[in-house]
Amino acid sequence: MSLGPPPSIYTQSTLAADRARRRRRLQLLGALAAVVAVVGCVGGWLALSDGDAPDHRTPAAAVQKPDEIRDTVEKDPVSPEGQPVVEHKETDLAANSDTNPRYAPGTWATKKILAKGVANRIEGYRIEPGYDDVAWKLKLSGHLCATSRHVTADGRTAVVVQPPTPAGAKTKGVCDQVVFVDLDTGKKLWQAKMPNAGSAFVTNTNLTLTEGVVAVAWGEGSVAYDMKTGKQLWNSTSVSRCEDKGFAGGGALLALEACGPLPDTRYRVQKLDPRTGRAEWTYRLAAGVQDVYLPSSDPPVLAVAAGDTLVTDLITLDDHGKHLATISTSGYDPKCEDRYFGAGYFGVVENCDGVVAGRTQVYVLSKENYDAGQAPDWIVAFDRKTGRTAGKFEGRERQMVYPLRMSGDDLLVYRRSGDPVQPAAVVRWNPLTDKETPLLLFQLPEDEEYDLSDPEQSDMVYEQGRMFFAKRELVRDDKAPKDPVLLALGIGSAGLKH
Prior knowledge:
Number of helices: 2
Shape: globular
Number of strands: 34
Helix content: under 10%
Structural class: mainly beta
Strand order of the largest sheet: 1-34-32-31
Largest sheet: 4 strands, antiparallel
Oligomer: single chain
C-alpha cells in the first residue's frame, strides 16, 4: 500500500540518508570502542545565569480536567530497582527489510496500558510483570499517517489514517481520516473525514492535541475537531498566500505557517484560539529561514534553520508572542526531523527529541562527543528569558544522556547503560539545586540496547513510574527471518506499586 504520493516513498535522497546513517552507526561503534580505553573525564557545571534566581519549587500535581493534555508530575518510587512490565514482539516480518520496514508510529502509556501504533492498527498491552498480554487490538480503516505524543488527562489520543484508495482515483495515498481513541479500552470514539484533504500525505500531515481540540494540518489545508463529539470546529484551505504546515499542541495551540512560494517562502508562527482558529498573536521570522519546528507551545519555543537546512537556533517567546532570547544550537543536537531519515513521515513539526522546554528553562542536548577525556554528551539548561546557561547535566563515560520531558520544574533524563555493571537509569534533575534523583535503574537486553536507546529509532516514554521503549520501524532478523522481533519493552519499579 502506498504511503504517499507517487513516486515511491523511497526516493534516492531517502536511500542516501539511509546509507549515511548506517555509516554513522559503524563510526559510532568504533568510537565507543575507543572510549572504553579512556580513563577519567573532564567536566564541570556551568554557572547559574546572572540576576535573580528563578523559583524552582516543583508545584504540586494539580487535578486536571479530562480534556486537558496530560502533564504528569512524577513521584519517587519506593525502590529505583527496575523490572520488566511489558515485553511485546511482532511476528510475520519475513517480508520486511531495511528498505521495506513495517512502520510502527505512535507510543502512548496510561496507568494500565502501553498502546502502540503498528501499520494499520493500534494495540494495547497490559502493564503487568511477567506477561505479554494484548489487552485490545483496534483495526484501523487504513495505514497510520500521523500521530501525536499528546494524551488527554483521561487517556485519549488521536491518529490520522490513510484509507484504501478508491478505484479510478487520480491520487493515491491520501491521508484524510482522523480517529480518536480511548487508550485504556481500545475503543474508537469517533472518526471524521478531513475536508479538501486531497494533498494530505504521510510526508506532510501533522497532528496535535490541545485542551478539548484535535488539530491537523497538511500544508494546503487544516482542520480542528471537538474532542468529545468529533464535530468540526473550523478549517482553512490554501486560498490564502500563507499555508498551515503544522501545529504544536499541549497547553496551547501554535500554528506554523509558510507564506509565499519557494525559494522566497517566509515563515510565521501564530497562537490560535483552539475553538475558533482565530490568531491571538503572530511572530514573523526573518527572511532566509529555511525551516521551522515547534518543540513547545507553552511556553512558546521555536527551532529554526536560518540560512541552513539544519536547525541553527532556538527562539523563545513570551506569552504575547514577543521575542525573549535566541539560543545558538552550535555544538548542540536538537534532533528535529531526525526520525525516518528526515523524510517527514508521520508528522515532524513538534518532534525535536533533543529539546525540552520548562517554565523557566529550555534544555538542549549536546552533540555526541567522543574526544579523549570528555564525557560523551551532556544536557544544558538555558534561561528562557535571557538565553544564558543555567546548569549542565553531564553524561558519564560511555553513558549518553537524553532529555525526556518535564516533571513539574524538574527535567526527566534517560541515561544509557555503559556496560553490564553500569545500569541504564531514569533520573530527575533540578538545575538550580543540581540535585539528581534516580527514579529507575535497569538493564536493557544487550542485543537491543542500541536500537531501543536511540531517539532517532525508538520512542522513549516515561509515565507514572515506568519507562517504555518502542521501535518506530520493524524489520526481520536476516539470520532468522521468521522469528518474532521485539517491538516494545517497559520497565517499572520492582518495589511496591507506584
